[in-house]
Design a protein that fits this description.
elongated; 6 strands; 11 helices; 55% helix; 7% strand; disordered C terminus; 3-stranded antiparallel sheet; mainly alpha
Length: 284
């Protein structure tokens, strides 16, 4: 089974789509697909569909949605010409009823979430080892698996909203680490456009603003780097009643002084092992 959720929902069995068009069955499949090979409880599915106040007929209605999904799975399985008639799996072996819930058996197919997590993990390990080129390569590859917001075309309830927040945080962490690696490699000009969008979207995210300041400074745009700090400080004070962190203030002072060797343009400058992290140790 091939599963894509990092954008529009797509679930394919034997190359055929089993993604329903009706909103509620689509929700059920989305949650089962994200938690492939794990039991999803009836309670979790009902909460996803109806929140804290499911209808009295909720359990029966959920069973109807499961049957609809099995019909789609059965149609896909019938197209599997690699198996003899007697060996062909039944839909109930793919979408399994278990005590208390249901399990979608993913088999050995592709999952974009699983691929993203594996590639991002490789990138983080490369960062820890000081292999910034390898980290940037693995993390960029991981990020290409995203085509939009997770479950972009799915009506979402509490369970999926929680999962979307988790996935978005994982994506943001990968973006931040990827840019960090690219700054180590002296690619400050290449990341400017991406950071321009990111700091507009995440208006109080200090690490991203610090990366933007450093990239601007290294690109010969010192006054713009200081403007980024002033705008961020204004937002933090106005919206949250907070001053920028000590790390970010140190970065601003380094840009003002323009004499810190670790601010140099290349990753080979003295003390350049963590050009942003050293100044933002307490940002998070």
């Amino acid at each position: 089974m091939d599963i894509e959720v990092l954008g529009a929902l797509s679930v394919r069995e034997n190359g055929a789509s089993i993604t329903p068009t009706a909103p509620k069955p689509r929700q059920v499949l989305a949650l089962l697909a994200l938690r492939t090979d794990r039991v999803v409880s009836v309670a979790a599915l009902m909460e996803e569909l109806w929140g804290a106040t499911p209808p009295r007929s909720g359990r029966t209605t959920l069973q109807t949605y499961v049957l609809q999904l099995r019909e789609l799975i059965a149609g896909a399985l019938e197209k599997d010409e690699s198996q003899e008639e007697g060996e062909r799996r039944a839909a109930k072996d793919v979408l399994v009823t278990l005590p208390g819930g249901y399990l979608l058996a993913g088999g050995h197919g592709h999952s974009d979430v699983r691929a993203f997590e594996q590639l991002a993990g490789l990138g983080y390990r490369a960062m820890d080892a000081g292999d910034f080129a390898g980290a940037a390569r693995q993390l960029r590859e991981a990020l290409t698996l995203w085509s939009g917001t997770a479950f972009a075309d799915v009506q979402t309830g509490p369970q999926l909203e929680m999962e979307i927040k988790r996935l978005d945080e994982s994506r943001l962490c990968a973006v931040e680490q990827c840019i960090e690696a690219e700054l180590h490699l002296g690619r400050h000009r290449e990341v400017l456009a991406e950071l321009t969008v990111l700091v507009d979207r995440y208006r109080t995210h200090e690490s991203l603003h610090a990366q933007f300041m450093l990239a601007l400074y290294r690109s010969g745009r010192r006054s713009e780097a200081l403007d980024v700090y002033r705008r961020l400080r204004g937002t933090l004070v106005r919206d949250l009643g907070l001053e920028p962190s000590a790390g970010l203030r140190r970065l601003q002072q380094s840009i003002l002084a323009a004499n810190d060797q670790s601010m140099a343009e290349t990753a080979d400058a003295p003390r350049a092992a963590h050009p942003v992290k050293e100044r933002l140790a307490h940002v998070r």
